[in-house]
């Protein structure tokens, strides 16, 4: 393992902006993204250097590394004992769910009785911490979402880290600290299967879905999802394909099997493996030509390394690039959505990957790994022919053609480092 530190200044400042807001701070995000490390040492170091804190201002407890507090009563006793500590201000609770199902209730009660303490919690089961528990905390909770590392931050630690490296291994710190590319790829493959896929399978088993879908079928279905990401038709097409290949006979059984397949999407989202992106559209419904569909769904993976690992050796360069661009826009809080035009029959005539407004500017952003004669009309001409007051960009890796006036061409490297 390499002895390096990612400073995560943007995430540290997210936490710093929430100090003294009288809420329980819930650090959420995909597993192994460095949530615990963000709290201690990074955020702790920030508070000591910028807010005048000293060592005894902190109580830091990792409940996954102890076995003396395993019940709600023991947890209550532990928290009650903290008020005896002189000068205590910040309480960092890592993996508090290890103390039992009532951990949120215990924390909330303590917070209401002692609002003078700054409480930060995180844990591996972060979707639970961000959804169910945030709902439980209500106005007393403040979720802080942590993502994988952006390319530009990785470059500050590893100057020779290339865009191709980023597309291969993604931005999980636990992967990046491996010494060689082979080590990184092996660690990513193991992490993907032994943690993320297993987590999704466990969730399906808990929901009794794996009584009908075998674990290997679930993993194969997840792979199918990843091979068809970034397509708005991916949900229905993958489910239909899975049902056709599955063990379902008869309409009733096919419908049940289809619902179980859909639950895999849900649990992949719950595990912070997939990001569900709902965007408005205005097109005739695929099922009812007389009705209009008001929205569509696309899925992206929370880390492009996990996406590549799930796809094995299959070529998904275009999907990886689009996924990476989406994550970057999302990281910058840009509400980007597809720009799509349809004819009167609902057939798609133009499809631009991302449209958004930024500082009063209307921007269209097309993403393609390679610009060539075969995709020029789809990727370039359609963008060029869209009317309206738009700034038009193409993000690419290879360009085998020239450049059209009216479009700004951005290499992917330039996009991730200094776009906007």
Structure keywords:
single chain, 420 residues, alpha/beta, Rossmann fold, Trna Endonuclease, Chain: A, domain 1, 3 domains, five-stranded parallel beta sheet, five-stranded mixed beta sheet, 12 strands, 21% strand, globular
Offer a concise description of the structure.
By secondary structure, this protein is of the alpha/beta class. The chain contains 17 helices and twelve strands.
Q: In words, what does this structure look like?
A:
This protein is α/β, with parallel strands linked by helices and 420 residues long. The chain folds into three domains: 138 residues, P-loop containing nucleotide triphosphate hydrolases (Rossmann fold); 122 residues, no CATH class; 87 residues, Trna Endonuclease, Chain: A, domain 1, CATH 3.40.1350. It is built from 17 helices and twelve strands. The strands form three sheets. A five-stranded parallel sheet has the order 2-3-4-1-5. Strands 8-9-10-11-12 form a five-stranded mixed sheet, sandwiched between helices. Strand 10, helix 16 and strand 11 form a beta-alpha-beta unit. The chain is globular and about 70 Å long.
């Amino acid at each position: 393992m390499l002895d390096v530190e990612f400073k995560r200044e943007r995430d540290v400042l997210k936490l710093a902006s929430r100090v003294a807001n009288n809420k329980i701070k819930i650090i959420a995000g995909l597993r192994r993204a460095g949530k615990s490390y963000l709290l201690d040492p990074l955020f702790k170091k920030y508070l000591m250097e910028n807010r005048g804190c000293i060592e005894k201002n902190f109580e830091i407890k990792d409940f996954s590394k102890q076995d003396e507090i395993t019940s709600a009563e023991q947890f209550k006793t532990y928290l009650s004992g903290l008020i005896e500590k002189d000068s205590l201000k910040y309480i960092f609770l890592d993996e508090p769910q290890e103390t039992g199902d009532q951990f949120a209730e215990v924390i909330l009660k303590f917070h209401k009785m002692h609002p003078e303490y700054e409480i930060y919690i995180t844990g591996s089961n972060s979707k639970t911490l961000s959804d169910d528990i945030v709902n439980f905390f209500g106005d007393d909770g403040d979720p802080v979402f942590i993502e994988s590392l952006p390319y530009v931050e990785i470059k500050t630690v590893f100057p020779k880290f290339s865009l191709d490296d980023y597309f291969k291994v993604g931005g999980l710190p636990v992967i990046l600290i491996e010494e060689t590319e082979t080590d990184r790829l092996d660690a990513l493959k193991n992490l993907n299967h032994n943690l993320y896929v297993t987590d999704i399978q466990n969730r399906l088993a808990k929901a009794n879905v794996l009584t009908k879908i075998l674990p290997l079928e679930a993993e194969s279905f997840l792979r199918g999802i990843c091979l068809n990401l970034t397509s708005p038709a991916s949900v229905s097409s993958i489910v239909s394909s899975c049902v056709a290949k599955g063990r379902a006979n008869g309409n009733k059984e096919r419908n049940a099997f289809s619902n179980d397949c859909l639950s895999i999407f849900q649990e992949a989202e719950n595990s912070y493996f997939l990001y569900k992106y709902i965007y408005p559209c205005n097109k005739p419904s695929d099922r009812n030509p007389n009705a209009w569909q008001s929205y569509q769904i696309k899925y992206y993976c929370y880390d492009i390394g996990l996406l590549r690992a799930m796809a094995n050796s299959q070529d998904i360069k275009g999907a990886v690039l689009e996924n990476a661009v989406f994550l970057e826009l999302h990281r910058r809080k840009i509400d980007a959505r597809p720009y799509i035009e349809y004819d009167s029959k609902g057939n798609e005539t133009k499809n631009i990957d991302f449209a958004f407004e930024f500082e009063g500017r209307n921007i269209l952003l097309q993403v393609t790994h390679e610009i060539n004669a075969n995709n020029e009309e789809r990727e370039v001409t359609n963008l060029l022919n869209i009317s309206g007051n738009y700034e038009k960009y193409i993000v690419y890796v290879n360009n085998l053609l020239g450049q059209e006036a009216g479009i700004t061409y951005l290499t992917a490297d330039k996009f991730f480092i200094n776009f906007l």
